[in-house]
Design goal:
Layout lengths: L2 H24 L7 H6 L6 H12 L2 H14 L5 H16 L1 H6 L6 H7 L2 H33 L7 H50 L2 H12 L15 H13 L2 H8 L4 H14 L3 H15 L8 H9 L4 H36 L5 H22 L9 H12 L1 H12 L5 H23 L9 H5 L2 H21 L32 H18 L1
Helix pairs in contact: 1-9, 1-16, 3-9, 3-12, 3-13, 3-16, 4-8, 4-14, 5-11, 5-13, 7-8, 8-9, 8-15, 8-16, 8-17, 8-18, 8-20, 9-14, 9-16, 9-17, 11-18, 11-19, 11-22, 12-16, 13-23, 16-17, 18-20, 19-20, 19-22, 20-22
């Protein structure tokens, strides 16, 4: 190992030690109660909520895999981020007020109040299965980045996974959501700073923005591409529907929103994270386009790590790698906390007649530790799944779409009932899992027709959404309407449209910043 690599590795190790120590210290006071451990005592302001949510959303998987996609298709690779930002803003407008006024503890709790305990149980188990399958991907991508930067052999992949998993797991298991959010606020600064450094230095090496746009205007500077590409314009509706789940009911996204001190901070934090989504352009798209200019051969998921290794001087590359590890930690620690809350607060009470808060807290911590260990052990095998980012999108989109349908229609329709929800969750989740298996595993692909395999999964997702909606409505209308207590959670909907900004100056108004966000997003799509 060269002296420059030794310096970079030393900086990364120092960072990991410091952030782990800070995380344990930050969560020490809130880790002895269920509300403190899983919701941080409901004390977070809008900046902490938004920064943590953005850090959770901007995982190292996106730095690596979206950077690799941007090498091939340019700006179109960030459609998920831009459209996802819009849906976060919509969630702040329509869904977050209901959750905060209802004093929800976890997201599956909404399904119990709106439908039945059975719906809550199904969501809890489906979410747990999806999250357990997804968790190793972050460790795998993080280890890949570590090996790529230091030009180490892939034989060391298991060891790299252990180092990363042990670091992430320590403070997330001990300190709970408070540790997660407090460390995310620090890590998002490092994440953005390191990412911008790669973008600006890369632009300079490649001749500047004008040079890249002149050379790749038709192939890499269009947000909406024709069919046959990795992200065609026909996928936009599927992207939006996929984003609906994450914005409206994802446990690991909305858990920190439920921990906000009040409705205003919850809504503004959600909207703030939507604004931060615009940073996907310099953080993910530009490095990928720069790599297209500088390297003749595609680098796949290693694109970003190679750019860091080749473009940045010793020391700075170590800081940027620390930022990438921060992205991994912010995503992985949130998943760990979310899964432990679902097991302790949604699954455990349905198994035991008289659940104990102390037992639930211990169960949550043991769940966190077990999930971290599982992720570390399984992560090396994810190298055989191909483009890992697309696999994650397919897994989440189809396995959890039925949950999103129940949340969306249950929020706006007073006729859908528990029988429809159970049917939708059960049938939809099973079919979604079958689709993911048959389109992801090579031994199963021959069983599907070629024309079906040729469809982009985001082109299939709208039909899957309609199928789940049809099941929900058909079974609901074939059975009795929901009882009054099953609609009581909708009483939290405020028909006056209050935004929580009343009495505040105009520049603090939610409506103002929501309108500006929509305008900025529209101009972005017009420009590209």
């Amino acid at each position: 190992m060269t002296s420059s690599q030794t310096l970079d590795l030393s900086l990364v190790l120092v960072y990991l030690l410091c952030i782990t120590g800070y995380g344990i210290w930050a969560g020490r006071k809130e880790s002895n109660s269920t509300e403190g451990y899983f919701l941080g005592g409901r004390k977070f302001g809008w900046f902490a909520v938004g920064a943590s949510l953005f850090a959770t959303n901007m995982s190292i998987t996106q730095f690596m895999s979206v950077g690799g996609m941007a090498h091939d298709i340019g700006l179109a690779s960030i459609n998920n981020d831009l459209i996802g930002g819009l849906l976060l803003a919509v969630s702040a407008l329509c869904f977050v007020p209901v959750y905060i006024r209802s004093r929800l503890f976890t997201m599956p709790e909404f399904l119990e109040r709106r439908y039945s305990r059975g719906a809550r149980q199904i969501f809890g188990w489906v979410y747990l299965v999806q999250s357990v399958l997804q968790q190793p991907s972050g460790y795998y991508i993080g280890a890949l980045a570590l090996l790529g930067l230091f030009n180490l052999p892939t034989d060391l992949l298991p060891i790299a996974c252990i180092v990363i998993g042990a670091t992430v797991g320590l403070y997330a298991v001990i300190g709970g959501l408070t540790s997660v959010v407090r460390t995310d606020v620090i890590q998002v600064c490092l994440l953005i700073g390191g990412g911008l450094a790669v973008a600006f230095i890369g632009l300079h090496k490649a001749g500047g923005w004008s040079e890249l746009q002149h050379e790749f205007a038709e192939t890499h500077f269009e947000l909406l591409l024709p069919r046959g590409t990795a992200m065609p314009w026909t996928a936009v509706l599927g992207i939006a529907l996929h984003s609906c789940y994450f914005a409206f009911c994802s446990v690991h996204i909305l858990q920190r929103v439920l921990g906000a001190k009040d409705e205003y901070n919850a809504r503004m934090g959600m909207l703030f994270s939507g604004w931060l989504k615009f940073l996907a352009i310099p953080l993910f798209a530009i490095p990928g386009i720069v790599a297209m200019k500088l390297y003749a051969e595609p680098l796949g998921d290693s694109t970003y790590a190679v750019l860091v290794r080749d473009l940045l001087p010793a020391g700075l590359s170590g800081i940027v790698l620390a930022g990438m590890i921060a992205a991994l930690m912010s995503s992985a620690d949130s998943n760990v906390n979310a899964m432990s809350s679902v097991v302790a607060m949604d699954i455990y009470p349905t198994i035991v007649k008289k659940p104990s808060p102390k037992v639930a807290l211990k169960l949550g911590k043991w769940t966190s530790a077990s999930i971290v260990c599982f992720g570390v052990l399984v992560a090396p095998y994810y190298q055989h799944l191909g483009a890992i980012y697309l696999f994650i999108l397919r897994l989440g989109g189809f396995l959890l779409m039925p949950v999103g349908v129940c949340f969306i229609l249950g929020r706006f329709s007073r006729r859908v009932n528990q029988h429809g929800a159970i049917a939708c969750l059960g049938v939809g989740s099973l079919i979604g899992l079958i689709y993911v298996m048959f389109t992801s595993m090579p031994p199963l692909k021959p069983f599907l027709p070629d024309w079906f395999l040729a469809l982009h999964f985001y082109e299939v997702l709208p039909f899957f959404f309609l199928f789940n909606g049809a099941v929900l409505f058909a079974v609901s209308y074939a059975t009795k309407p929901p009882m009054a207590e099953q609609l009581s959670v909708l009483a939290a909907v405020d028909p006056s449209g209050r935004s929580g900004s009343e009495g505040r100056p105009l520049w603090q108004s939610f409506d103002l910043w929501f309108g500006l966000f929509c305008g900025a997003l529209g101009l972005t799509y017009i420009a590209f």
